[in-house]
Amino acid sequence: ETGVTQSPTHLIKTRGQQVTLRCSSQSGHNTVSWYQQALGQGPQFIFQYYREEENGRGNFPPRFSGLQFPNYSSELNVNALELDDSALYLCASSEFTGEQETQYFGPGTRLLVL
Amino acid sequence: AQTVTQSQPEMSVQEAETVTLSCTYDTSESNYYLFWYKQPPSRQMILVIRQEAYKQQNATENRFSVNFQKAAKSFSLKISDSQLGDTAMYFCAFRNRDDKIIFGKGTRLHILP
Questions:
Q1: How far is A87 from chain B (nearest CA, A)?
Q2: Beta strands A87-94 and A104-105: pairing type?
Q3: Which of these, A30, A39, A79, B45, has the minimum number of CB atoms within 10 Å of its CB?
Q4: Cβ atoms within 10 A of the Cβ of B88, count?
Q5: Contacts of A92 in chain B (CB under 8 A)
Q6: CA nearest B96 in A: which residue?
Q7: What is the pLDDT of residues A66-77, one digit of tens each?
Q8: Which of A48, A45, A44 has the alpha carbon at shortest distance from A66?
């Protein structure tokens, strides 16, 4: 176990709806990254938050947004869901201290968009 | 663009055998980190081993070791004395100076009894 938790574990939505996924980081970790993992693919970087500010973004549209809170939790919000948004969403937390640190992954949320 | 390529989509080996998973990457950076992650059927991604590009010595973690060839941009994972619990998807990953991880598409490894 990595100490990173995510909720819910599974979710079914319909096209056009909005969804919020949650992640609880390891205590003391000030950085959280979100990834989208389509079936049979490697995870793709969505964005990263450091001390509650967005700190880099991958090739995802603005309808993917996030928040990070002082209590080490974070959210991934996706608006106007599309069928291709169906995937496993992973969050990973780390402690950035000026050097590269190991990211610890949560178990993921499986999102199905119908 | 930085890319990570895993050329073996799927592999099977007998328990107790040694298996090597291949990975190549492309980057213009000189200092970076490389990782192998394991994702068992339960889904939680676990770090297997990491390698700092500035270190020439290959990293080892118990039965897991890497062969890091910086000039060739190659980073293979060797699993010795494979066990049934090693059955999983294995992802090679590259971490750039912006702290973003780029993953390969993975190799599905089956350890057969």
A1: 12
A2: antiparallel
A3: A39
A4: 21
A5: 45, 101
A6: A100
A7: 999 988 899 999
A8: A48
Pull the structure tokens for residue A79: 């608006």
Nearest CB neighbour to B47, from listed A1, A40, A102: A102
Cβ of A88 within 8 Å of Cβ of B37? The answer is: no
**Residue A37 binned pLDDT confidence (cut-offs 50, 70, 90):** very high
Query: Looking at beta carbons, which residues of chain B come within 8 Å of A107?
Result: 42-44
- Inform me whether the pLDDT recorded for B100 exceeds 90: no
Strands (E), A1-114: 5-7, 10-13, 19-24, 31-37, 44-50, 53-57, 64-68, 73-78, 87-94, 104-105, 109-113
